[in-house]
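Researcher: I've been going back and forth with a colleague about how NADPH-dependent FMN reductase might be arranged in three dimensions. Neither of us has a model we trust, so I'd like an independent prediction. The organism is Anaerococcus prevotii, in case that matters for your notes. Sequence below.
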Amino acid sequence: MKIGLLVGSLRKGSFNRKLAEISKKIIDEGNEAEIIDISYLPFYNQDDDGANPIEEYTRIREELRKYDGYIFFTPEYNRSLAPSLKNVIDIGSRDPRGNLWDGKVAAVFSASMGSTGGAMGNHALRQSFVYVNLITMNQPEVYIPAIHTLFDKECNLVDDTRIFLEESTRSFVDFAKKHS
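Model: Here is an independent structure prediction for NADPH-dependent FMN reductase. You can compare it with whatever you and your colleague have in mind.
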């Protein structure tokens, strides 16, 4: 099983990226995972697509096709999802060969500095999943609040949250195997 990890926050010190790196280690115990770089993508523009899509669209579509499932890690931006994740969903859904998300499995893990753990961003992202026909893991729900307080001085995630993230990641791998 090969799982693609998509991180909505593009900043270097992203907490969601740190969570993705922890999940990658868990998945790599018996499967394969990669963090997919989406930082280079321009916003989707249909004028740049079609018979001769720009190189960035072709490149990300080829990358996305490699995976059996995906975990999306999203912060919450103004009570919604990270625009970079919506952008990659749009690009993948308009592949000239067809919607490359169709029937694949996915999960949303969200974390934010606020008290709701990115719940609004998490649910906004799930709305896009319905239309592109991603099969979504519903349980466990992963919302991690006050993420900025959950790493120690050595950048290790505190035990309770790390255990929750590890168990949630393993649940997704089980879900992916069952539904792929």
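Researcher: What would you highlight for our discussion?
Model: I'd start with this: DSSP finds five helices and six strands in the chain. After that, consider the following. The radius of gyration is 16 Å.
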